[in-house]
Amino acid sequence: MPRHDHFSISDLAREFDVTLRTLRFYEEQGLIEPARQGRQRLFSRRDRARLKLILRGKRIGLSLQEIREILDLYELARDEASQSLKLLHLLTERRDRLLEQRRDIDAVLDEITQLETHCRQVLDTMTAHH
DNA sequence: GTTCTTACA
DNA sequence: TGTAAGCA
To answer: Residues in domain HTH merR-type (predicted)?
Structure first.
């Protein structure tokens, strides 16, 4: 965990508990673009900071595509305002998706309860006849 | 021993 | 994203 200015792919993998494959994949997806020292990747503090944001976004449930949008803003429109605005928007969408999933789950749960009730009634009826 | 690219159950 | 293969 060299506290210096550069990190190897293994350094970051260890620090953030992700696999080497994951870091290479994120690069492939354009979320990070570590420098190269010959052929090897050389991660800067900036890459490290981005990775931190990527993982945070993933925890919240944002897609890599959405995370990239935020990261891009952090690069281009260096103003923190547009970035926060974007994040706020994505968070709202994420919440809506979760709420919808919750509604779907509740609906299935209710159906299960109804079927359960039905089954018990059938069993009670048969028992009563014997 | 470590990292890289490519391909695929 | 995991894993295996063949290099550097």
So the answer is: 6-73
Strand A40-44 vs strand A6-7: parallel, antiparallel, or unpaired?
A: antiparallel
Residue A67 CA distance to nucleotide B8 C1' (Å) = 27
Domain carrying residue A11: 1-61
A8 touches strand B (CB under 7 A): yes
A24 touches strand B (CB under 7 A): yes
Number of structural domains in chain A: 2
Specify the pTM.
Answer: 0.81
The alpha helices in chain A, defined as continuous H runs, are 9-16, 20-28, 45-60, 64-75, 80-128
- Write down the mean pLDDT value for chain A: 91
Chain C, protein-covered positions (CB within 7 A): 1-3
Q: Flag whether A36 is in a domain.
A: yes
